[in-house]
Task: inverse folding
């Protein structure tokens, strides 16, 4: 993997300048900070927001893994925030599903052209990242971008295994 040479905060502008009117996918939405950032800066893009918004009982021991009722509150809050923003209407769609399951649904349901970007910000464990990479890479459009967060060499990969999974991929 290579660094793109810019921070995640500049990603939306890069996408707007490089891809313009295109589809993108954000895997792992949570409270929605990155979704809002991308929708604000990538003003011609359409973003699929993929997150099951449920508590994972095993394999995801992080503070973001809140109980189901808190996940539902986060989802509803973000949904309401986006609903009140006329500038983003028609430019996003929530997909409440596990990230690895969406590519097959995308193809089966013909949701649209292949996405130009898939940004992985979901479960950062080695197994989850590896599964997402293998599921999303074939779906990306030619010239598309597979990007993400949590690329670190800290730990043994059981909690944050992004760098190991990406390097192997």
Result:
């Amino acid at each position: 993997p290579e660094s793109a040479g810019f921070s995640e905060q500049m990603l939306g502008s890069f996408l707007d300048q490089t891809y313009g009117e295109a589809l993108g996918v954000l895997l792992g939405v949570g409270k929605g900070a990155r979704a809002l950032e991308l929708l604000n800066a990538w003003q011609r893009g359409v973003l699929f927001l993929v997150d099951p918004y449920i508590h994972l009982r095993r394999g995801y021991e992080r503070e973001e893994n809140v109980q189901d009722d808190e996940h539902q509150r986060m989802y509803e809050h973000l949904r309401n925030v986006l609903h009140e923003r006329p500038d983003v209407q028609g430019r996003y769609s929530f997909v409440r599903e596990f990230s690895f399951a969406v590519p097959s649904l995308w193809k089966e349901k013909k949701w649209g052209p292949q996405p130009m970007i898939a940004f992985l910000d979901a479960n950062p464990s080695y197994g989850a990242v590896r599964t997402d990479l293998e599921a999303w890479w074939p779906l990306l459009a030619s010239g598309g971008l597979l990007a993400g967060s949590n690329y670190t060499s800290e730990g043994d990969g059981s909690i944050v295994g992004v760098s190991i999974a990406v390097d192997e991929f």
